[in-house]
Amino acid sequence: MNRQKEIQERFFKFIANRKAYGNNILYELMEILNIRKGAAYKRMNGETGLTIEEALVIGKHFDVSLDSVFQDDKYISFNHPFFKQERKTAESFFDQFKFFLQPLKNSSSAPGEEKKELAYLANELPIFYYFSHKYIFNFVLSVWSHLHWEDNQLMITDTLDYDQQIQAIRNDVLDSYYGHPVTEIWNSNMLNNLYQQVIFCITIRAFQDASYLEKLMKDIENLIEHLRDIAIKGLKSIKGVMAPESQLTIYLNDFGNYLNIVLYQSKYIKSSFIGYDYPNFMVTHNEEFHRFSTEWFNKIKKRSVLISSEGYQYRELFFIKMENDFKYFKERVDKLMGIYYNL
């Protein structure tokens, strides 16, 4: 097999695995290059060489970095979701999040099939947990929108404008992230950023209705109970719905604060996600970077303690601290509400 044929076949296989397009690639290729079916086939199987212009058009259309396919492994490129967005909105975030979940969707391992692995190194609480808690997610979405996507005054209300999109993402999370065996490394302070954001929002009177804060506090309390439940069982769930292959292994490591990193690996693709400006993740499919990141993750895991399933002692200590932190946080909230909302 000549080099050109090998590279082009790898290029289109990469697109198929990344985007889960399957045979639809052929028809999209015909449309974007304005060519017939036979000509598209010849480009996909390497019989006809791609021009530089064609490769750029294809890469842009399918949102695939040419560096990931054609460059040496030492050259690493990342895709950031909003570099090319003129107007950044919460809808853009939902679309991008679904795009990142696409390689995982409907791809849980059946007995005898190739192994798929997913790992999350959490500086903050893994983002997937927020989607199942209405008032927490509404709060963080308002903050994210204020910081990243909308040039407006922060005003947190009880109204969700994105119920349909959020429910769609909950379904995607159930089908993808929760559909794989997952290893997560937590730290004792991963809720602290959420607490600080709530405190700050009280001091700037960002809550339109003080009663919303009561619902938010109850939701955080429910979240902590949910985290305890999944840690005890070593199984993942969304609102009590168990997912296929729902094994969850959780470790605790308090040596330092790390980036939010998600690593996904299958036979066809190795993806590394880095929470650069949380909740926005940068992504690369560079295999050498993924190998390095996985080795680093495994080193941290070896220096961590198990808190899921049989890790009883450390789990109890972890949740005693988490509950004490929440109690102290709640006392601060009550005092500040008396000052800023006359309650």
Quick rundown:
This protein has 343 residues and is an alpha+beta fold. The protein is 50% helix and 13% strand. It has twelve helices and eight strands.
Rg value: 22 Å
Per the principal axes of the C-alpha atoms, what is the gross shape?
globular
Q: What is the straight-line distance between the termini?
A: 75 Å
Structurally, the number of domains stands at 2
Fraction in helix? 40-55%
Total helices: the number is 12
Mean pLDDT: 82
Stretches where pLDDT is under 50 for at least 5 consecutive residues are none
Largest sheet: 8 strands, mixed
- By DSSP, the count of extended strands is 8
Structural class: alpha+beta
The SSE string, one letter per element, is HHHHHHEHHEHHEEEEEHEH
What is the percentage of strand-forming residues? 5-15%
Report what the structure shows:
The protein has 343 residues and is of the alpha+beta class. Strands 1, 2, 3, 4, 5, 6, 7 and 8 form an eight-stranded mixed sheet that branches. The chain contains twelve helices and eight strands. The chain is globular.
